[in-house]
Amino acid sequence: MSEDNAVYMVKDGVKTKVDTPPHGFGKQVITWQDGKPILYEINYTVKTK
């Protein structure tokens, strides 16, 4: 896995790259439980021209 501009999640010592919003405008939300990330969600906005 390369070290490019991204968000990485580490759980139990395993690094996982979090998906990026597909259209360039968006956010990544990571949900934590008991001090560990348990899931993430991707939200995005489509900009009209």
Regions with little confidence, pLDDT below 50 for 5+ residues: none
What is the element string, with H for helices and E for strands? EEEE
Biggest β-sheet, characterized? 2 strands, antiparallel
- Average pLDDT value? 87
The total of beta strands comes to: 4
Rg for CA atoms = 13 Å
Oligomer status: single chain
The amount of beta strand, in percent, is: over 45%
The overall number of domains is 1
Number of helices: 0
Gross morphology: flat
Structural class computed from helices and strand pairing: mainly beta
Q: What is the CA-CA span between the terminal residues? A: 35 Å
The share of residues in helices is under 10%
Placed side by side, the strands forming the largest sheet appear as 1-2
Protein name: DUF3954 domain-containing protein
